[in-house]
Design a protein that fits this description.
13% strand; three-stranded parallel sheet; Transcription Regulator spoIIAA; 3 strands; alpha/beta; 87 residues
Length: 87
Amino acid sequence: MARFCLVQPTNYATGLQALEEFADIIHASGRSVILCGALERPAQMMRRADFEEHIGKETICAIIQEALERARHLSGVVQPPDELLRR
């Protein structure tokens, strides 16, 4: 069974290396990291630092819906019909 940790980066000045180390620990344990909601400046820093290549470009999502879809894909969970989501 896959396990996931959703992380929202907020402190780009000091957090990029910590996020890389965190991702390495999580990947080593057989789990996946999904990042979402980075503001434009931190997102630019991630691209310049080759951070996307380090953790996988597909694991950096712009919005929470995209991150949840990625988690569903990784876990093999099929999204429930819309009427179940509205309850």
